[in-house]
């Protein structure tokens, strides 16, 4: 069976779990991809983000949902952000009402993980983050393009800190590009440290070599 996906990350993970399947690149918006699935015999199935199908009211097209045990997601996937000018306190104060604290902490941990790995869209880096009982759990993984080589680990940290008045010189502190004025700074710092520590653990086990080979092979395609 041939499975269509445009994601190196998804393909690498699923090749490892389902080596008997063939994965081919598929491009286009939702309409285009579904049309290719319906009208051509090239693909037995295609992999899409469920959120996009649900937004369009096309839940009936979902044949199976892939959980984290099958496929970790991309760093920051599904999170919505507002980009503003650095140090623009008026606008930062205005948009701070939109922050979801759990999402902020998850994104900080994931982005710190990616930054430490020096990863990007050209290499298969995947994560899954869970906040439960004031503990932030981060699972991170790196894969070779064919999924045959991989490293995957999980770490956790506590993020229960009181919110302190942080006005002053550090009132616009960023953590991997994120400014969240209504989330305790200590919690943000703990989340960032978690991402860095998990990435460092994978690097100590050989992640840099896996990513370097994957990047070279992808650039040569």
From TrEMBL:
Gene Ontology biological-process entries: protoporphyrinogen IX biosynthetic process
Record-annotated Porphobilinogen deaminase C-terminal domain positions: 105-167
Keywords in alphabetical order: Porphyrin biosynthesis, Transferase
GO MF assignments: hydroxymethylbilane synthase activity
Gene Ontology terms: cellular component: cytoplasm
Enzyme class: transferase
Cofactor: dipyrromethane
Chain ranges of the Porphobilinogen deaminase N-terminal domain: 1-92
Pfam families membership: Porphobil_deam, Porphobil_deamC
The protein's Enzyme Commission number: 2.5.1.61
Residues that span the membrane, as ranges: none
Pathway of action: Porphyrin-containing compound metabolism; protoporphyrin-IX biosynthesis; coproporphyrinogen-III from 5-aminolevulinate: step 2/4
InterPro entries: HemC, Porphobilin_deaminase_cofac_BS, Porphobilin_deaminase_N, Porphobilinogen_deaminase_C, Porphobilinogen_deaminase_C_sf
The family this protein is said to belong to: Belongs to the HMBS family.
Record-given protein name: hydroxymethylbilane synthase
Organism: Cettia cetti
């Amino acid at each position: 069976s041939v499975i269509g996906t445009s994601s190196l990350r998804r393909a690498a993970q699923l090749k490892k779990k389902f080596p008997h399947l063939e994965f081919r690149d598929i491009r286009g918006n939702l309409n285009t991809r579904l049309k290719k699935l319906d009208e051509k015999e090239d693909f037995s199935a295609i992999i899409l983000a469920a959120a996009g199908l649900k937004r369009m009211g096309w839940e009936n097209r979902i044949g199976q949902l892939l959980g984290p045990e099958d496929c970790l997601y991309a760093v920051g996937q599904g999170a919505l952000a507002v980009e503003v000018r650095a140090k623009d306190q008026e606008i930062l104060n205005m948009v701070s009402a939109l922050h979801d604290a759990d999402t902020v902490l998850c994104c900080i941990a994931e982005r710190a993980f990616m930054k430490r790995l020096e990863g990007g869209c050209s290499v298969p880096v995947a994560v899954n983050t869970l906040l439960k009982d004031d503990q932030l759990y981060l699972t991170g993984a790196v894969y070779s393009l064919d999924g045959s080589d991989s490293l995957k680990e999980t770490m956790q940290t506590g993020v229960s800190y009181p919110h302190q008045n942080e006005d002053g010189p550090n009132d616009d502190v960023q953590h991997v590009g994120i400014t969240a004025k209504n989330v305790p700074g200590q919690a943000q710092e703990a989340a960032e440290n978690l991402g860095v520590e998990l990435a460092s653990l994978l690097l100590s086990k050989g992640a840099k070599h896996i990513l370097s080979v994957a990047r070279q092979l992808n650039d040569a395609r």
